[in-house]
Write a structure and sequence with these properties.
Oligomer: single chain
Shape: globular
Order of helices and strands: HHEEHHHHHHHHH
Number of domains: 1
Length: 283
């Protein structure tokens, strides 16, 4: 029997019930993440420690160059950048997300596909709940700690604060689609962990996590702008710091939205191919 990928909507009541189910999944994922108190505290301390190291590296860079600004960033902007990127590590699951890959490897995916919910949104809802918890227990505390230690930069206008909420949601969705696609490689690979690790390394280097994209050589910036990776971190940073203003601000959000649509469509195609393979093998 073919695993069920999600029932079609049968009117307003069915759609409302589905979204209530997704909201419940997100809430349970949030509560599950909050339950790991020791892991959350240790993760927060680790992120904070390495964030401070990165901040002092950039302070040394600015001091060595005797420059007020580097590539449009003031020292305060650069310090704030390190805090933001550390705060986003757990939020976008920068260095790994194995739940779906593990589900495929163990065969639990057949049960997930049989649920009366769309498979993609079933996992997406859980990931958004996980991310909300990580923002509460790691992201916001890290930024609060930075504000106590340094004089950090804040979004310059109410419009930038509003855009920050939009770019954070789009960054998370883009990250989820990428992780979802990578995890689906387990339909074809006996051990897809290696592919996953390579994928997370790509995000680390190409998203703007290690260094602001503006600090890189022009040719590298040009290449990175043609990928979706900067939309996960660098766009969030540039919106928060006010680097993007005027027409560039909605333009950056539109580019994020475009990448979100493209990756969502790709995720659907890969999922359909993976489910066909599962059915052919008798899964």
């Amino acid at each position: 029997m073919r695993p069920h990928e999600g029932q079609p909507v049968r009117g307003g009541e069915a759609a409302s019930a589905d979204w209530r189910a997704y909201a419940a999944l997100a809430r349970m994922a949030l509560q599950r993440q909050l339950a790991y108190r020791f892991a959350n505290v240790s993760g927060l301390l680790t992120n904070g420690f390495f964030g401070l190291l990165r901040a002092y590296v950039l302070i040394a860079l600015f001091g060595a160059r005797h420059a007020g600004r580097v590539a449009g960033y003031s020292m305060g902007d650069a310090i704030t950048y390190t805090g933001l990127t550390q705060a986003l590590i757990a939020y976008i699951a920068l260095w790994g997300w194995w739940d779906l890959m593990r589900s495929i490897r163990t065969g639990e995916v057949a049960s997930d596909l049989s649920r009366p919910l769309d498979f993609f949104w079933y996992w997406c809802a859980q990931d958004f709940g996980r991310a909300a918890a990580q923002m509460l227990v790691r992201g916001l505390p890290i930024m609060a700690a930075y504000a106590l230690v340094f004089r950090i930069t804040l979004p310059p206008t109410p419009l930038h604060w509003l855009a920050l909420l939009v770019t954070l949601a789009l960054a998370l969705f883009i990250s989820f689609c990428w992780r979802f696609i990578v995890s689906l490689s387990a339909f074809w690979m006996q051990d897809a962990v290696g592919i996953g690790r390579m994928a997370w390394i790509l995000v680390t280097f190409l998203s703007g996590f290690l260094m602001p994209v503006a600090f890189l050589p022009d040719w590298m910036q040009a290449l990175m702008r043609y990928t979706f990776f900067p939309a996960m971190i660098n766009t969030v940073v540039e919106v928060y710091l006010g680097v993007l203003s005027g027409p560039a601000l909605p333009g950056a959000l539109a580019a994020q939205l475009l990448w979100a649509v493209i990756l969502y469509a790709l995720a659907r195609l890969v999922l359909a191919a993976g489910v066909r393979k599962l059915v052919v093998q008798g899964g």
